[in-house]
Amino acid sequence: MRFGLLSLTLLVALELCAQQGDRQGETQTPRVPRELIPPAPVLPPEQALKSFKLQAGFRMDLVACEPLVHNPVQIAFDPNGRLWVLEMRGYMPNLDGTGEMEKTGDVVVLEDTDGDGRMDKRTVFLDGLIMPRALSLAHGGALVAEPPNLWFCRDTNSDLECDEKSAVANDYATQADPKLGPRATHEHAPNGLLCALDNWIYSANHTTRLRYADGAWRREPTIFRGQWGISQDDFGRLFYNSNEDPLRADFVPSAYLTRNPNSLNPAGVNVQLYEDKAVWPVRVNPGVNRGYRKGQLRPDGTLATFTAACAPLVYRGDNFPREFEGNVFVCEPAGNLVRRYILQEQGVSFKAKNACGEAEFLASTDERFRPVNLNNGPDGCLYIVDMYHGILQHHLYVTSYLRQQILDRGLDQPTDLGRIYRVVNESRRPGPPPHLSKASADELVKALSHPNGWWRDTAQRLLVERNDPSGVSALKQLTRSGANPLGRLHALWTLEGTRQLDSATLTGAMSDAHPKVRAAAIRISEPLLKNQPELLTELLKHVDDLAPDVQLQMAFTLGEVREPPVEAALAKIARQNAADVYLRDAVISGLGGRELEFLECLLGGKDWLELETGADRFLDALAHCVFSEGRCPRVNRLLELAANRAGAEPWQQRALLDGILDTALPGAKGRVKPVRLDAAPAALAALSKSPDPELRERAKRIGDLLAWPGKPGVQPEAVVKPLTTEEQKRFDQGKELYIVTCGACHQPHGKGQEGLAPPLVDSEWVLGSPRRLARIVLHGLHGPLNVKGKSFQLDMPALGVFDDDQIAAVLTYIRREWGHTADPVEPDLVKKVRAETEKREEAWSEAELLTVP
Questions:
Q1: pLDDT digits over 324-333, tens only?
Q2: Which residues pair with 796 in a beta bridge?
Q3: I need a surface site. Which of 189, 366, 687, 689 has the fewest CB within 10 A?
Q4: How far apart, in whole angstroms, are the C-alpha atoms of residue 646 and residue 374?
Q5: Quick one: which of 561, 558, 640, 633 has its CA closest to 603?
């Protein structure tokens, strides 16, 4: 299913009678009789308010509506409480999307001039935009995403109108690039622009993060996150989702988990928080794209499961009751509702629970209610962005069934509407408006301890942007004696953002009463550790701090240092946390290329003689990394290490051998390409003669993963034709493109990410037909897809915006990297495939690709 705000742009229809979303041979029989479907007229705002069923104890206030606001998709509050609104006014002006690429989008500023809580003044800050999709306030201006550009826009004369616009990036949201015309897809285009606690700006659906430093915008690769909307909790952990997957999160900073290429899919990022996808609307919902399918709707006609989940928001305000702090709210515009989740902490991780059981926090009987974004307000309330538009589905995927549903209830007209609401706790008044734009440094430092997260975030941002030396003393004092641990946490990150940290401040914060403050101090200390040995000495004193957050961050931070005492500290952390997958992978993330030595060190001591919970899994994981690296001398040493444990504990031998066997994917016969050794390994022969039948059986299976000269059935390695000068240039260009475009999902090591992207290393798709590969890059791919014996449910976006040379370069790179020996790809082949598939508008399926030679 393709719903959600990322599907919001409906493009020019090529043929009305043959819908792009129709699946061949699929009968589209409606499951809800027309007479049981209520009409869906446009409701005036006052009447729309009566359509809401809201959790007891709260009320809905109208903040803005048409004609003051049109097609809103994102909002932001500036330091003085004015409401900035991103309007996607080009969205779907008619059922066929004609005119969507006209310059009708804008950014407006709304003001409440009489203080009654309802906006009454509109100023157009920036207009003439084509399908703008993201907004963030920064450095006295606004970042605005207008595919494919990310603009930094400023008002230099204080009239609230943009008079200076400069490009930050020209490759932001390229999948929605207007120059692609009817082939553009907004389903997978970046959005969000969240300024997070660590002073970086993150996006959903994008693999680059941003930061302003030294007079320029700095870019850095990061992992792929979700589809539409991104949020953070009080401690900077990121939350996101996709259409049918309502809530995922990063438990750990993602940059750490990409530093060890031998560790495949380490745990801690892109974690699914909630498996049950059931939703509970209060009206029938036949107007979903596959509403004719069994299971899409309940017998009563209501939507059964998430199909348009988007815009998760961690509530961090101070208007709701205390038990709502840290709850996550998620939009479901196809079901006309907003879900509330309670997070349940479990060490360094957490799980989500539907707070309302078989009901929703907020649901509407109005089919046009389309909540597409949520915000924490400076008054402590929850703000809801309602696009109030009848159609959600992207034109490229609309079925004939959905088209008829839209026509039956006239959902295609009128357009250019929109509402913004706030949810208010009936037992508490909303907070006062802010006046932070002219606040002094000391006043902003005090705001870092405000009970409302909006105030803390805004104060930190302003302090970092101003970089005013007069506030440094107060910030350092706050880290030492602030009553609110969140204030102390923000003070640390503000000092990091202004580059004013010192050893004394960090040393004190490492002993803070709150474990998350201690963990932040450890993390922030990393740039100073190499040049300030006394700080490393202080850090190592905290190895015995058993708070899970501190142990986790110690594992990550010590992995950045190469000193003998650090190895001993990591070994201790590993022993204390061997049963915790997140701590285990954190330790291993910093051992890239040193896993064997670390393993030998562990087994050479006495701490690992007894099989305690998780010890076998830790040894297993280290052995897995060594074997995955595939270097002959090290694999031989690993086998010798296993064989030499015969006189020790048998569990150690089993763990080491199981780590090797884990490199073979379930359902696949060994690795696609075995590890090649110089000769038959004597250690394996010894293991195969073990008196323990389980070890003998493991040794036999490991033999299938190895090859050596003279081994029966092993063919000599083929002579690989070297790349020509031109092909090598193409390979080098492809490497650069891969890192920027593909590496965040498939990873620089090509081993992919569990639940997100399949491996490219030894993939039969990568090493197979280049004509299939070219089709995937040009038009995208929707799952399921079988790779190396494992099925991946995926939705890969098209990269047809690349020219033929660029696509040939990327394909040449992945077919010759990681030990691959497949033929390079020529631009002429890509050109030919592009011409053959010129009229194709949707992503390929596996079945279709398998028909291509």
A1: 999 999 999 9
A2: 781
A3: 689
A4: 60
A5: 640
